Amino acid sequence: MNVFDLFDESQRPKAPRIREATEVHRSAGRKLAMIHNMHLSALDETRAMMDRVQHDEDAAKSLAEHVTSLQLWENYRKFGNLCGRECQFLDFHHTSEDTEIFPAIAKNASEGLRRVIARLSQEHSVVHQLLEKLATNVADLWSDPSAEHFARTRETFEVLDKAIRSHFGYEQTELQEAIGYYNAL
Ligand SMILES: [Fe+2]
Ligand SMILES: [Fe+2]
Question: N or C: which end of the chain has fewer CB within 10 A?
Answer without folding.
Answer: N
